[in-house]
Amino acid sequence: IARFPVIKVKGVPLMSHIAYNWDSIWAFRPDPSDLLIATYPKAGTTWTQEIIDLLLHNGDAEACKRAPTPVRSPFLEIYSPPPIPSGLELLSKMDPPRLIKTHLPFQLVPPAFWENKCKTIYVARNAKDNLVSYYYFDCMNQTQPEPGPWEGYIHKFMRGELSWGSWYEHVKGYWLEREKRNILYLFYEDMKENPRREVERIMKYLDLSVSEDVINHIVELTSFKIMKENPMTNYSCVPSPVFNHSISPFMRKGEVGDWKNHFTPEQSKMFDDDYATQMKDVNIPFRTLI
Ligand code: A3P
Description:
This protein is of the alpha/beta class. It has helices at 16-20, 22-26, 45-56, 61-65, 87-93, 112-115, 127-140, 150-158, 167-177, 188-193, 195-205, 212-221, 224-229, 265-278; strands at 6-9, 12-15, 35-39, 99-102, 119-124, 183-187. The chain is built from 14 helices and six strands. The strands form two sheets. It has a four-stranded parallel β-sheet with strand order 4-3-5-6, with helices on both faces. It has a two-stranded antiparallel sheet with strand order 1-2. The longest helix has 14 residues, at 127-140. Bound molecules: adenosine-3'-5'-diphosphate.
């Protein structure tokens, strides 16, 4: 196992195995019924995947388990650490409608998704908590680039040097296209505040209709506590040496505001000043503190 370096594709640093296989990813053609879930890493991807998967299976967790992948939905990439087969390999074996996950920024999403008007759900999380979660992930995932010390990591995040590129450009890219492309833009903090409301929003966007009881059941099954114990969602299927769960579990804390336990007041001020500059051209209603 080696930590992959990042290589730029159209100016965006991507993990090398994605960059090397870029042509096949860019040429990927989804079915119009396929559904895309897009996020900057650590924004709540797995949580949202679990909600969608359960909604598509009318809350039947056993039916979800019969899906042909040990994790919730294929990742739009070529390489996956064993024993998980690569995303494109899995997708070719599945019948649409398929739930497809990506961390690609908007401008790098294969254009056939937009030509085919695929439904797209984007999840965004406030920058500071997203950064903290990514830091722990880069420490535990032995294929991610070396995170280095915390202080330097903050700067890498601010400069957009982490894999999948700039958080700022990522959240803005989908935000600015959400109306034109009919993207459902969700916030992690809203999901924490009122998971039921957000499950219902997803259900309506997908033109699904499930009973009140099923909604309650889905909210329960997608709580942090239950997902942490669920082998379908806690990534225990990716063991050491790829994911070193003893450094940090995948389902780590699942809270809003954990950044306060990591940023010093000086780091926070420096980050906020830079944030104001990088985000001055948009008004995305992030809630960093609840
Ligand atoms: P933390 O590291 O802050 O705990 P992703 O799936 O995009 O990689 O995001 C992972 C983050 O989402 C982790 O954040 C994880 O704990 C959190 N998460 C996953 N499921 C959750 C749930 N049901 N409720 C709240 N947070 C959840």
